[in-house]
Amino acid sequence: MGYFAWKPYVSVAQRRKNAEKAAAKILKSGGKLSPIAAYRGALAKTFWGKAWCDNLEAYSDYANRLPRGRTYVRNGSVIDLQIAEGQVHAKVMGSCLYEVTVKITPVPDKHWRAIGKDCSGSIDSLVELLQGKLSTAVMQRICQPRTGLFPAPKEITLDCSCPDWAGMCKHVAAVLYGVGARLDQSPELLFTLRKVDAKDLVGQAGVDLPKQKRKSRNAMVLDESMLGDVFGLEMDEVQDEVTRKKTPRKAVPPAKPIAKQPPRKPSVTAQKGREVPLKNAASAKKPAAKTKTTIAATAKKSVEKKASVQAKIPAAKKVVIKPAKAGKSS
User: In this predicted structure, what is the pLDDT of residue 211?
Assistant: First the structure.
């Protein structure tokens, strides 16, 4: 392409205005955009975003071309960036609006299994993985050049609609940096881009263990929850009982002989026929004597009172009632 085919230079301020107009036109026609907003400072701030940018800058193929795209991504020239399985589609405003496509080769199965094996047992949860809260060994393994999760130059195919003949133009460089900025917000998109499942890295401690032999059909094993439902037992209580029986009992020393005590005297019958148990013999004698004395005195007074009353009453005269004669009417 000749020299005169190049379009005139457009300043940053004018490029921003053109980007706003182009975005408004696309949205008005019903399209959807996912822009990289203009910002200052570091291109990426989280673990995954930084690791993506560091991986690209580590290759000499890209080191000299990438800086051309930094100002484009910082001033909001990337008005749309969509990450899908194995590819990135973007719209970048330069002298005019350009279409950029970046294709990424999926992680080979053998490669992915090797990463999972090296990280097995070191990643406790998916949240921990996406937040980048990993041990140093796991971070180094994931970010390892050419054999880690991030793509090497041979796994990346670049395409831009601009007239630049270079493999990586400033519009493509802006898109690659834009991917790092997007991973700050949605780190799970890296696994989508490489066509792998992040959950495969979580809890792979038993992946390489030999599989158990197939059980015979006659062997029937009940689950603990089923045992509880069938027999109405709590398995924790059963386990405690089994443990108690298996635990050897300590030897019990022989009991000391108990000294013989004197036999207790029988209870004394109290007044009105009620039987009151007595604690000791001394307390039994005192109430019994007191009770007999009281009864004798009361009986003597009653006899004397009756005799005095009878002496005061004169002897009654005898009254003879004669029977009525027969034949007389009253």
Answer: 43
